[in-house]
């Protein structure tokens, strides 16, 4: 019922968005005298903001055509290296730069309601110096039920298989939620002395131990029993999608939760967007539009993955307590002895509080001190850890240097 109501609302808003776009075009048409009045332009831009806010956004494209290496433009082509039911391993091939000399880098994108394209800025910054791969997760509502289930254990298996596909000597960056499964995968590969275990693992804003500086997200997960989440957060995919009848945690619910946490900021962003349009500052308005087009492009997670993550990571704190299991085997970070670990946190992160990611360094108790590093980015929120100016100027140089120093 919940999903059906949302679909009805989405279709209705889509029609209103279309009408608002038409209204904007009419009000700003050069042959319309009203277009040359303050009232006319104000009304037109108000409709423009409404049309943008009420539109539906599908999966975005990465859109990379080239990168710059040594002052020279190098073309980029996307290649699907391995295709799985719930995700694919995508590589950004730098044409003419396929000599294998640059470090191979796997960026593990979150499965938390957004597409991997949310890390476009992360990928872009790493491309000039690395052979970049990314986990491109599928929207669960697009996966037929016949393809089976996907939970946290499967997520870990996928990461291990992706490392095996890339081959020995790779590096990894896990952004936010996948810090836990990526850390678990490296723990298992280290315990098995796996030849494809990565040389470095960088965890950015990840909930390794949510008992440290708990945020609103952590508190909500702890105060509600798992049955509450199953009853209130899980919905059934409607018949109009390939994944009909699959039980999922809808992306629109995740988006609503995140936006409600900072509702005032989001309202001010749209108000500023409107002011920029009225003032003729189309560049600033376009930047805000691009951000929200990406931010509001959401996808569903399987119910089993969502519920297992809530219970294991946020309620039981199984990983830091030494109680996390994978396929009946304990996850033991103490087995990590050769993979260098970098923990990155944002001073103003309201999703993963300070200390939650740094806990990974403590848990890797047998890893030499010179193979551990902690970096706290001042005045940086959760999104700014992996996107934006501070990521480019402050954080990415630290990550690049860490990879280079352990590349052999």
Protein described:
The structure is a single chain. The N and C termini lie far apart (55 Å). This protein folds into two domains: 2-56 and 251-295, no CATH class; 67-219 and 301-405, Alpha/Beta hydrolase fold, catalytic domain (Rossmann fold, 3-Layer(aba) Sandwich), CATH 3.40.50.1820. Helix 2 (38-54) crosses helix 9 and helix 9 (263-278) packs antiparallel against helix 10. The model is unreliable at 45-54 and 269-279 (pLDDT under 50). It has 408 residues and is α/β, with parallel strands linked by helices. The protein is built from 14 helices and 14 strands. Helices cover 42% and strands 17% of the residues. It has helices at 2-27, 38-54, 120-126, 152-166, 179-191, 216-223, 226-232, 251-261, 263-278, 282-295, 303-315, 318-321, 359-363, 389-405; strands at 66-69, 72-84, 87-94, 104-108, 131-137, 171-175, 200-204, 235-236, 247-249, 301-302, 325-326, 329-330, 340-346, 372-377. It has a nine-stranded mixed sheet with strand order 1-2-3-5-4-6-7-13-14, with helices on both faces. It is globular. A hairpin with a 2-residue loop joins strand 11 (325-326) and strand 12.
């Amino acid at each position: 019922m919940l999903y059906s109501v949302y679909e009805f609302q989405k279709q209705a808003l889509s029609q209103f968005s279309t009408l608002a776009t038409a209204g904007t075009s009419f009000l700003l048409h050069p042959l319309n005298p009203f277009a040359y009045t303050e009232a006319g332009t104000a009304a037109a831009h108000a409709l423009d903001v409404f049309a943008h806010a009420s539109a539906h956004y599908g999966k975005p494209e990465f859109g990379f055509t080239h990168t710059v290496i040594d002052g020279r433009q190098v073309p980029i082509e996307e290649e699907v290296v391995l295709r799985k039911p719930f995700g694919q391993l995508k590589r950004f091939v730098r044409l003419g730069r396929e000599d294998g000399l640059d470090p191979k880098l796997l960026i593990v994108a979150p499965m938390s309601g957004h597409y991997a394209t949310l890390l476009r800025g992360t990928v872009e910054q790493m491309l000039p110096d690395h052979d970049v791969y990314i986990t491109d997760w599928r929207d669960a509502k697009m996966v037929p039920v016949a393809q089976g289930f996907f939970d946290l254990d499967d997520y870990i298996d996928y990461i291990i298989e992706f490392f095996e596909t890339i081959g020995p000597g790779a590096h990894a960056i896990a952004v936010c939620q996948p810090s836990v499964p990526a850390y678990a995968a490296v723990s298992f590969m280290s315990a098995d002395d796996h030849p494809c275990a990565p040389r470095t693992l960088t965890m950015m804003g990840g909930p390794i131990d949510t008992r440290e500086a708990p945020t609103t997200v952590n508190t909500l997960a702890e105060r509600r029993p798992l049955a509450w989440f199953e009853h209130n957060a899980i919905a059934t995919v409607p018949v109009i999608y390939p994944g009909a009848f699959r039980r999922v945690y809808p992306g629109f619910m995740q988006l609503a939760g995140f936006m409600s946490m900072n509702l005032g900021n989001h309202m001010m962003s749209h108000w500023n967007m409107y002011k920029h349009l009225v003032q003729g500052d189309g560049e600033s308005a376009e930047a805000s539009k691009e951000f929200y087009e990406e931010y509001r492009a959401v996808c569903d997670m399987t119910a089993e993955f969502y519920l297992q993550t809530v219970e294991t990571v946020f309620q039981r704190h199984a990983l830091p307590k030494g109680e996390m299991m994978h396929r009946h085997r304990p996850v033991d970070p103490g087995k990590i002895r050769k993979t260098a670990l970098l923990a990155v946190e944002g001073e103003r992160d309201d999703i993963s509080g300070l200390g939650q990611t740094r806990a990974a360094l403590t848990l890797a108790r047998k890893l030499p001190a010179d193979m551990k590093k902690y970096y706290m980015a001042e005045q940086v929120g959760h999104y700014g850890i992996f996107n934006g100016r501070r990521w480019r100027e402050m954080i990415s140089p630290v990550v690049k240097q860490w990879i280079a120093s352990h590349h052999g």
